[in-house]
Design a protein that fits this description.
Blueprint (H helix, E strand, L loop, with lengths): L1 E5 L6 H12 L3 E5 L4 E4 L6 E4 L2 E2 L5 E4 L6 H13 L3 E2 L3 H8 L1 H10 L7 E3 L6 H7 L5 E5 L8 E4 L2 H13 L4 E5 L7 E8 L2 E9 L14 E4 L4 H14 L3 E9 L2 E8 L5 H7 L3 H24 L1
Parallel strand pairs: 1-2, 1-6, 6-7
Antiparallel strand pairs: 3-4, 4-5, 8-11, 9-10, 9-11, 12-13, 12-15, 13-14, 15-16
Helix pairs in contact: 1-9, 2-3
Bound molecules: adenosine-5'-diphosphate.
Length: 302
Protein backbone atom coordinates (compact mmCIF):
# COMPACT_ATOMS: atom_id res chain seq x y z
CA UNK A 1 0.00 0.00 0.00
CA UNK A 2 0.99 3.62 -0.38
CA UNK A 3 0.48 5.34 2.97
CA UNK A 4 0.72 9.06 3.76
CA UNK A 5 1.47 10.27 7.27
CA UNK A 6 0.03 13.76 7.53
CA UNK A 7 2.49 15.41 9.88
CA UNK A 8 4.29 18.72 10.09
CA UNK A 9 7.49 17.23 11.41
CA UNK A 10 9.09 13.98 10.20
CA UNK A 11 11.46 14.05 13.20
CA UNK A 12 8.74 13.63 15.82
CA UNK A 13 8.80 10.32 17.69
CA UNK A 14 5.23 9.43 16.67
CA UNK A 15 5.84 10.23 12.99
CA UNK A 16 9.10 8.25 12.99
CA UNK A 17 7.50 5.23 14.62
CA UNK A 18 4.58 5.22 12.16
CA UNK A 19 7.03 5.49 9.25
CA UNK A 20 9.15 2.62 10.56
CA UNK A 21 6.11 0.45 11.28
CA UNK A 22 4.63 1.06 7.81
CA UNK A 23 7.88 0.34 5.96
CA UNK A 24 8.54 -2.77 8.06
CA UNK A 25 5.12 -4.03 6.98
CA UNK A 26 6.15 -3.57 3.35
CA UNK A 27 4.38 -0.31 2.53
CA UNK A 28 5.56 2.70 0.59
CA UNK A 29 5.31 5.50 3.12
CA UNK A 30 5.52 9.29 2.74
CA UNK A 31 5.41 12.02 5.35
CA UNK A 32 3.25 14.82 3.97
CA UNK A 33 3.39 18.26 5.58
CA UNK A 34 -0.32 18.98 5.27
CA UNK A 35 0.14 22.75 5.62
CA UNK A 36 2.05 22.65 2.33
CA UNK A 37 -0.73 20.80 0.52
CA UNK A 38 -3.04 22.76 -1.72
CA UNK A 39 -6.09 21.51 -3.48
CA UNK A 40 -8.59 21.89 -6.23
CA UNK A 41 -11.85 21.57 -4.35
CA UNK A 42 -14.25 22.22 -7.22
CA UNK A 43 -13.20 19.71 -9.83
CA UNK A 44 -15.23 16.52 -10.40
CA UNK A 45 -11.91 14.80 -10.07
CA UNK A 46 -10.67 16.17 -6.72
CA UNK A 47 -6.93 16.53 -6.48
CA UNK A 48 -4.25 17.46 -4.00
CA UNK A 49 -0.94 19.11 -4.80
CA UNK A 50 2.28 19.16 -2.84
CA UNK A 51 5.42 21.06 -3.69
CA UNK A 52 4.23 21.57 -7.27
CA UNK A 53 3.28 17.95 -7.93
CA UNK A 54 -0.11 16.19 -7.68
CA UNK A 55 -0.28 13.74 -4.75
CA UNK A 56 -1.46 10.54 -6.32
CA UNK A 57 -1.92 6.86 -5.70
CA UNK A 58 -2.34 6.95 -1.91
CA UNK A 59 -4.40 4.12 -0.42
CA UNK A 60 -4.54 5.44 3.15
CA UNK A 61 -3.52 8.42 5.25
CA UNK A 62 -2.73 8.61 8.95
CA UNK A 63 -3.50 12.16 10.14
CA UNK A 64 -1.35 13.63 12.91
CA UNK A 65 -2.92 17.08 13.04
CA UNK A 66 -1.74 19.48 15.76
CA UNK A 67 -4.39 21.44 17.65
CA UNK A 68 -3.26 24.84 16.36
CA UNK A 69 -3.75 23.80 12.72
CA UNK A 70 -6.96 21.80 13.01
CA UNK A 71 -8.93 23.84 10.48
CA UNK A 72 -6.54 23.46 7.55
CA UNK A 73 -5.46 19.96 8.60
CA UNK A 74 -9.06 18.73 8.65
CA UNK A 75 -9.66 20.31 5.20
CA UNK A 76 -6.69 18.34 3.81
CA UNK A 77 -7.98 15.10 5.36
CA UNK A 78 -11.43 15.82 3.86
CA UNK A 79 -9.90 16.30 0.43
CA UNK A 80 -8.18 12.91 0.70
CA UNK A 81 -11.56 11.43 1.64
CA UNK A 82 -13.08 13.05 -1.48
CA UNK A 83 -10.33 11.40 -3.50
CA UNK A 84 -11.38 8.00 -2.12
CA UNK A 85 -8.34 7.63 0.16
CA UNK A 86 -9.02 5.92 3.49
CA UNK A 87 -8.20 8.12 6.49
CA UNK A 88 -7.52 6.41 9.81
CA UNK A 89 -9.58 9.15 11.47
CA UNK A 90 -12.33 10.94 9.58
CA UNK A 91 -11.99 14.70 9.20
CA UNK A 92 -15.38 15.32 10.81
CA UNK A 93 -14.41 13.32 13.90
CA UNK A 94 -11.10 15.19 14.20
CA UNK A 95 -12.92 18.53 14.11
CA UNK A 96 -15.50 17.29 16.63
CA UNK A 97 -12.82 16.10 19.06
CA UNK A 98 -11.01 19.45 18.98
CA UNK A 99 -13.97 21.36 20.35
CA UNK A 100 -13.84 20.48 24.07
CA UNK A 101 -17.30 21.82 24.74
CA UNK A 102 -18.95 19.99 21.84
CA UNK A 103 -17.16 16.80 22.88
CA UNK A 104 -18.41 17.01 26.47
CA UNK A 105 -21.95 17.77 25.28
CA UNK A 106 -21.96 14.74 22.97
CA UNK A 107 -20.49 12.46 25.65
CA UNK A 108 -22.99 13.71 28.25
CA UNK A 109 -25.93 13.03 25.93
CA UNK A 110 -24.80 9.42 25.54
CA UNK A 111 -24.40 8.89 29.27
CA UNK A 112 -20.59 8.79 29.43
CA UNK A 113 -19.32 9.77 32.92
CA UNK A 114 -17.88 13.30 33.07
CA UNK A 115 -16.86 15.70 35.84
CA UNK A 116 -19.69 18.18 36.43
CA UNK A 117 -18.92 21.01 34.03
CA UNK A 118 -20.31 24.49 33.48
CA UNK A 119 -19.95 26.94 30.62
CA UNK A 120 -21.00 30.57 30.52
CA UNK A 121 -20.37 33.64 28.47
CA UNK A 122 -21.00 36.45 30.94
CA UNK A 123 -19.24 37.27 34.17
CA UNK A 124 -22.48 38.35 35.84
CA UNK A 125 -23.21 35.05 37.50
CA UNK A 126 -19.81 33.64 38.29
CA UNK A 127 -20.72 32.63 41.83
CA UNK A 128 -23.75 30.70 40.61
CA UNK A 129 -21.60 28.93 38.01
CA UNK A 130 -19.13 27.85 40.71
CA UNK A 131 -22.04 26.69 42.92
CA UNK A 132 -23.50 24.66 40.02
CA UNK A 133 -20.35 22.54 39.75
CA UNK A 134 -20.29 21.92 43.48
CA UNK A 135 -18.27 24.86 44.82
CA UNK A 136 -14.51 25.30 45.29
CA UNK A 137 -12.08 23.82 44.57
CA UNK A 138 -12.81 23.97 40.84
CA UNK A 139 -10.79 23.45 37.70
CA UNK A 140 -10.99 26.23 35.12
CA UNK A 141 -10.06 25.33 31.54
CA UNK A 142 -9.47 27.46 28.51
CA UNK A 143 -11.48 25.94 25.65
CA UNK A 144 -8.55 26.52 23.33
CA UNK A 145 -5.94 25.02 25.67
CA UNK A 146 -3.95 21.82 25.04
CA UNK A 147 -1.25 19.83 26.81
CA UNK A 148 -2.43 21.15 30.15
CA UNK A 149 -1.79 24.81 29.28
CA UNK A 150 -4.73 26.94 30.39
CA UNK A 151 -5.92 24.42 33.02
CA UNK A 152 -6.03 26.08 36.43
CA UNK A 153 -6.96 24.72 39.85
CA UNK A 154 -8.72 27.35 41.97
CA UNK A 155 -8.83 26.23 45.58
CA UNK A 156 -11.23 28.85 46.91
CA UNK A 157 -14.31 30.63 45.57
CA UNK A 158 -12.42 33.94 45.67
CA UNK A 159 -9.56 32.51 43.61
CA UNK A 160 -12.03 30.93 41.18
CA UNK A 161 -13.89 34.23 40.74
CA UNK A 162 -10.68 36.10 40.00
CA UNK A 163 -9.47 33.55 37.44
CA UNK A 164 -12.86 33.32 35.72
CA UNK A 165 -13.17 37.10 35.56
CA UNK A 166 -9.62 37.44 34.22
CA UNK A 167 -10.18 34.86 31.46
CA UNK A 168 -13.56 36.32 30.55
CA UNK A 169 -12.04 39.82 30.52
CA UNK A 170 -9.62 38.53 27.88
CA UNK A 171 -12.63 37.22 25.92
CA UNK A 172 -11.41 33.64 26.33
CA UNK A 173 -14.01 30.87 26.45
CA UNK A 174 -13.69 28.69 29.53
CA UNK A 175 -15.15 25.63 31.18
CA UNK A 176 -15.59 25.46 34.93
CA UNK A 177 -15.30 21.92 36.22
CA UNK A 178 -15.68 20.01 39.44
CA UNK A 179 -12.21 19.14 40.82
CA UNK A 180 -11.79 15.38 41.18
CA UNK A 181 -9.50 15.26 44.20
CA UNK A 182 -9.59 11.44 44.45
CA UNK A 183 -7.63 11.27 41.19
CA UNK A 184 -4.72 12.67 43.23
CA UNK A 185 -3.00 14.29 40.30
CA UNK A 186 -3.10 11.28 38.03
CA UNK A 187 -5.16 10.29 35.04
CA UNK A 188 -5.45 7.21 32.85
CA UNK A 189 -4.67 7.48 29.16
CA UNK A 190 -6.47 4.72 27.25
CA UNK A 191 -5.24 4.23 23.70
CA UNK A 192 -8.16 3.09 21.57
CA UNK A 193 -7.94 1.52 18.11
CA UNK A 194 -11.08 0.43 16.31
CA UNK A 195 -13.26 0.51 19.42
CA UNK A 196 -10.84 -1.41 21.69
CA UNK A 197 -8.41 -0.22 24.33
CA UNK A 198 -5.09 -1.66 23.16
CA UNK A 199 -2.85 -0.01 25.78
CA UNK A 200 -3.28 2.06 28.92
CA UNK A 201 -0.98 4.06 31.16
CA UNK A 202 -1.31 6.08 34.32
CA UNK A 203 0.14 9.58 34.17
CA UNK A 204 1.08 11.29 37.41
CA UNK A 205 1.59 14.99 37.93
CA UNK A 206 4.99 16.04 39.23
CA UNK A 207 5.14 16.72 42.97
CA UNK A 208 2.93 19.62 43.99
CA UNK A 209 1.08 19.72 40.65
CA UNK A 210 -2.33 18.39 39.62
CA UNK A 211 -1.96 18.22 35.82
CA UNK A 212 -0.59 14.88 34.76
CA UNK A 213 0.22 15.82 31.13
CA UNK A 214 3.65 14.47 30.15
CA UNK A 215 4.32 17.89 28.58
CA UNK A 216 3.83 19.42 32.03
CA UNK A 217 6.48 17.19 33.61
CA UNK A 218 4.19 14.26 34.49
CA UNK A 219 5.47 10.67 34.50
CA UNK A 220 3.88 7.56 32.96
CA UNK A 221 3.59 3.94 34.05
CA UNK A 222 1.77 0.82 32.96
CA UNK A 223 -1.63 0.39 34.59
CA UNK A 224 -4.24 -2.32 34.64
CA UNK A 225 -7.64 -0.84 33.94
CA UNK A 226 -11.03 -2.11 35.04
CA UNK A 227 -13.73 -3.44 32.72
CA UNK A 228 -15.74 -0.28 33.42
CA UNK A 229 -12.82 1.95 32.45
CA UNK A 230 -12.27 -0.07 29.28
CA UNK A 231 -15.94 0.19 28.34
CA UNK A 232 -16.05 3.94 29.10
CA UNK A 233 -13.01 4.68 26.91
CA UNK A 234 -14.36 2.57 24.05
CA UNK A 235 -17.73 4.28 24.27
CA UNK A 236 -16.18 7.77 24.30
CA UNK A 237 -14.19 6.94 21.15
CA UNK A 238 -17.34 5.62 19.48
CA UNK A 239 -19.44 8.66 20.40
CA UNK A 240 -16.83 11.05 19.01
CA UNK A 241 -16.35 8.79 15.97
CA UNK A 242 -12.57 8.34 16.22
CA UNK A 243 -10.98 5.04 15.14
CA UNK A 244 -7.64 5.90 16.71
CA UNK A 245 -7.56 8.12 19.79
CA UNK A 246 -6.42 8.67 23.34
CA UNK A 247 -9.19 8.83 25.92
CA UNK A 248 -8.18 10.42 29.24
CA UNK A 249 -10.04 9.29 32.35
CA UNK A 250 -10.01 10.33 35.97
CA UNK A 251 -10.64 7.68 38.63
CA UNK A 252 -13.38 9.07 40.84
CA UNK A 253 -15.62 7.80 43.64
CA UNK A 254 -18.45 7.52 41.12
CA UNK A 255 -16.40 5.61 38.52
CA UNK A 256 -14.35 6.65 35.51
CA UNK A 257 -14.88 10.21 34.27
CA UNK A 258 -13.73 11.27 30.80
CA UNK A 259 -11.84 14.56 30.59
CA UNK A 260 -10.58 14.44 27.05
CA UNK A 261 -10.61 12.55 23.75
CA UNK A 262 -7.47 13.21 21.73
CA UNK A 263 -7.44 12.52 17.97
CA UNK A 264 -3.62 12.64 17.61
CA UNK A 265 -2.41 10.89 20.76
CA UNK A 266 1.38 10.77 21.17
CA UNK A 267 3.07 7.38 20.89
CA UNK A 268 6.21 7.98 22.92
CA UNK A 269 4.61 7.93 26.38
CA UNK A 270 2.31 4.99 25.74
CA UNK A 271 4.89 2.81 23.96
CA UNK A 272 7.47 3.60 26.64
CA UNK A 273 5.12 2.81 29.53
CA UNK A 274 3.51 -0.32 28.08
CA UNK A 275 6.21 -1.75 25.78
CA UNK A 276 3.52 -2.20 23.10
CA UNK A 277 4.15 -1.57 19.43
CA UNK A 278 1.22 0.83 19.07
CA UNK A 279 2.51 2.21 15.74
CA UNK A 280 2.26 -1.22 14.09
CA UNK A 281 -1.26 -1.69 15.45
CA UNK A 282 -2.30 1.61 13.82
CA UNK A 283 -0.76 0.63 10.48
CA UNK A 284 -2.36 -2.82 10.69
CA UNK A 285 -5.74 -1.16 11.29
CA UNK A 286 -5.19 1.10 8.26
CA UNK A 287 -4.39 -1.98 6.13
CA UNK A 288 -7.49 -3.87 7.22
CA UNK A 289 -9.85 -0.93 6.77
CA UNK A 290 -8.43 0.07 3.41
CA UNK A 291 -9.06 -3.42 2.05
CA UNK A 292 -12.56 -3.52 3.58
CA UNK A 293 -13.47 -0.07 2.23
CA UNK A 294 -12.16 -0.92 -1.24
CA UNK A 295 -14.13 -4.18 -1.36
CA UNK A 296 -17.35 -2.46 -0.23
CA UNK A 297 -16.81 0.16 -2.90
CA UNK A 298 -16.29 -2.48 -5.59
CA UNK A 299 -19.36 -4.38 -4.46
CA UNK A 300 -21.36 -1.16 -4.34
CA UNK A 301 -20.63 -0.23 -7.92
CA UNK A 302 -20.70 -3.76 -9.37
P1 LIG B 1 -5.53 19.40 28.18
O1 LIG B 1 -6.49 19.14 27.07
O2 LIG B 1 -4.91 20.75 28.10
O3 LIG B 1 -4.57 18.28 28.41
P2 LIG B 1 -7.08 18.35 30.38
O4 LIG B 1 -8.52 18.64 30.52
O5 LIG B 1 -6.73 17.00 29.84
O6 LIG B 1 -6.42 19.50 29.49
O7 LIG B 1 -6.38 18.58 31.78
C1 LIG B 1 -4.99 18.48 32.01
C2 LIG B 1 -4.70 17.66 33.28
O8 LIG B 1 -5.25 18.30 34.43
C3 LIG B 1 -5.30 16.28 33.23
O9 LIG B 1 -4.45 15.35 32.61
C4 LIG B 1 -5.56 15.96 34.69
O10 LIG B 1 -4.39 15.41 35.28
C5 LIG B 1 -5.82 17.32 35.31
N1 LIG B 1 -7.28 17.58 35.41
C6 LIG B 1 -8.07 18.05 34.40
N2 LIG B 1 -9.35 18.17 34.78
C7 LIG B 1 -9.40 17.79 36.07
C8 LIG B 1 -10.46 17.69 37.04
N3 LIG B 1 -11.72 18.05 36.76
N4 LIG B 1 -10.15 17.23 38.28
C9 LIG B 1 -8.87 16.87 38.59
N5 LIG B 1 -7.83 16.96 37.74
C10 LIG B 1 -8.08 17.40 36.48
Amino acid sequence: MKIGILSRNPKLYSTQRLMDAASKRGHEVHVVDFLRCYMDITSKNPQMFYKGEPLQGFDAVIPRIGASVTFYGAAVVRQFEMMGVFSVNESVAITRSRDKLRCLQLLARRGVGLPTTGFAHETTDVQELIRKVGGAPVVIKLLEGTQGIGVVLAETVTAAESVIEAFMGLKADILVQEYISEAQGSDIRCFVINGKVIAAMRRRARAGGFRSNLHRGGSAELVKITAEERATAAKAARVIGLNVCGVDLLRSRRGPLVIEVNSSPGLEGIEGATGKDVASLIVEFAERKTVETASTRTRGTG
